Fold:
Amino acid sequence: MKAKSIKGKSISEIQIALADCLADGYKPTLALVFLSINHDIKTLSNVLNESGIAVFGATTSAEFTEAGVETEGIAVMLLDINPAYFKIVIKDFGTGSVYESASEIGEVGKNTFANPAFIISTANFLIPPNEVILGIEDKVGEDVIIIGGMAGEPINFTGTVFTNDSSNSNGMISLILDQDKISLKGIAVSGWKAVGTKKVITKSEGFWIHTIDNLPASEVLKKFLGSDIFSDDKTEGIVKSNMNYPMQFDRPGGSPMMLPFLLFNTNDQSVMLAGNAKEGAAFRFSLPPDFEVIDMVIESSRIIKERYLSEADALIVFSCVGRLSALGPMATMELEGLASTWNKPMTGFFSLGEFGRIADGKPEFHGTTVSWVALKEK
Structure:
């Protein structure tokens, strides 16, 4: 499998770069497309359609290749993978059960390949990510590989996923790969250090935490973070939070699961988490990030290369948009470190949440995390 990555600030730039890629006889069958909402999805899809290239796409706040980051541009990974080795499914969740819809995608994967893996992107941050994972797992098994990121931008938390002839802002796109033909090795890594004593969610509903240790949730967070609790000047009503201090939730016998808080409701002192807020869940806060955070992510790629996959054809990365704001220029260094480990084409985007497997666990949904996967045709 040969991969080529291209990026640009406009569809016309991508069109020119694509023509250059095809000039030597290269015939890609699949494109991973990540782009700003400023660009027309249909127009770009038509460009790829003309070359017979299947599309797995998502809108983002910032996208990247091994050549760097674009904040309002387009990043494309081209792969000449055998069409028999992959299948793209896009699903509108509508008002029905997210679990049932995800189960249907899992069923498609199970019926298509004996050993399927799923690279996914969801649109609409209110879609319960744990239901997505559970739906796929219940059809394929807990050992299934699920890696991906939530589409969208962090201002309005809106995103779109799309393929050649369909787009959706309330559903999921899945690239299902045949693991008997394509090796996938990756991991979800955060690197944030925990601080303080454990605290417990004592009252919650869905994504919203009402009390922590029987105290109003926002009161507890304000005590810990002070003025850093808000991400802008607005301090009344529904207020956006600073995502630089994720909660680290306990997992039995394993690494913590990272989830940032997204919104505050100053009317009832509740806090919205970037995932299901379960009553009884214990967590610790996080220290501000430093260079050790990116060192842990880069080291994860070196370890997997040494132990499991000495070479790769391509690298796909989903990094939390919270890392971009928290790490600043170090976020680019982190991506450069991942790319240099493999020295192969890379693409990805800064997401609103990440799907992936921690070193000692099964697939889960995370925040302020990097979930990456290396692909190699067998």
Summary: The radius of gyration is 20 Å. The chain has eight helices and 27 strands. Helices lie at 11-22, 41-49, 98-112, 129-140, 217-225, 291-307, 321-327, 329-342.
